[in-house]
Amino acid sequence: MAGGSQAQRPRDGRGFDFTLHMRRLCADLTRRLDELAHIDIDRVAIRFCQARKAVRHGIHASLTPLRFERGELFLRQRGRIMTVERLYDVTGREMLYLLSFYLPRFLERPFEDKLTTVVHELWHIGPAFDGDLRRHPGRCYAHSHSQKQYDALMRELSLKWLSLAPPPETHDFLRFNFAELERTRGPIFGQKIPTPKLLRAS
């Protein structure tokens, strides 16, 4: 599966490449925060999706693992062997995760919430960086036993990153909502990638 399509940039050259700027932000986060240093952002596909409803509630971002538990390529499910459709970038490099942002909804949140959301999704990437999620003990393996403590940690990490004085251009765009960003930077475009399918291998 190829890396998706690029939403068309206006002919006059104006416009704001949302996924390019988001990739730069994620790259800086993984460089400066030891807690995210295991992530090779070049193997994380980043896309934006059109939110179906123009409301603030609902999903803002998500991380899709492209492997099963412990990085396995195949999973036995109800007597069938399943696998995830492979995703490659334009150079042929295989992606291990798909990071999605839902617009305009994501951009309608306050700056601090947006930054914390980005950290939150990156934190889901497993320490082994093998295509699987970070797994906590118990049933709530994605967010641990305490959502409140999890959210507090994500907030702490985002503030830690800001304290390390990253270049303003890596995150200033998060200070705008969708309409403001479009008004100041021009039409918003970026990478659109179909969601990889769960396939039957045998």
Give a structural overview:
- It contains four helices and ten strands; from the N terminus they run ββαβββββαααβββ.
- A three-stranded mixed sheet has the order 3-7-4, covered by helices on one side. A three-stranded antiparallel sheet has the order 5-6-10, with no helix packed on it.
- The model has no long low-confidence stretch (mean pLDDT 90).
- It has one domain.
- It is globular and about 55 Å long.
- β5 (74-77) and β6 (80-84) form a beta hairpin.
- It has helices at residues 18-32, 111-123, 147-163, 178-185; strands at residues 5-6, 16-17, 44-50, 61-65, 74-77, 80-84, 97-103, 188-189, 191-192, 198-200.
- The protein starts with a strand and ends with a strand.
- It is of the alpha/beta class and 202 residues long.
The mean pLDDT is 90
Q: Report the major sheet.
A: 3 strands, mixed
Which runs of at least 5 residues are low in confidence (pLDDT < 50)?
none
The count of domains is: 1
What general outline do the C-alpha atoms trace?
globular
Counting helices, strands and paired strands, the structural category is: alpha/beta
Strand residue content: 15-25%
- State the separation between the terminal residues, measured CA to CA: 19 Å
By DSSP, the count of extended strands is 10
Give the SSE order as H and E letters.
Answer: EEHEEEEEHHHEEE
Helix fraction by DSSP (H/I, runs of at least 4): 25-40%
* Main sheet: strand order: 3-7-4
Radius of gyration from the alpha-carbon trace, in angstroms: 17 Å
Q: Tally the helices: what do you get?
A: 4
